[in-house]
Fold this protein.
Amino acid sequence: MMKKLDTYEEDILTAFEKGELKSISPSKENLAKFKAAASATFTKDKRINIRLSSPDLMDIQARALEEGIPYQTFIASVLHKYASGRLIEKPSSLISRPKRRTGQHG
């Protein structure tokens, strides 16, 4: 199911369909800058170990499968997005398990 395009997206699609958009190559200076930024972003020079509950790990593995990437790469990506302030949560298409109740004794 596709989401409805907003006005800006519709304008881009219309321009593309009319052949009004042209591909441009970045300058050598910008290309070098982009490569350096990408390299710095994805350099993995530290190792950590964490303990997760089995249900949480299963949920993470399922989300990674939705994205088509290994679950450890998915975890690193989520942490990177969070650390850089770019994490935007999107609802999973999977059926989620019930939320755990905390701090309540019954």
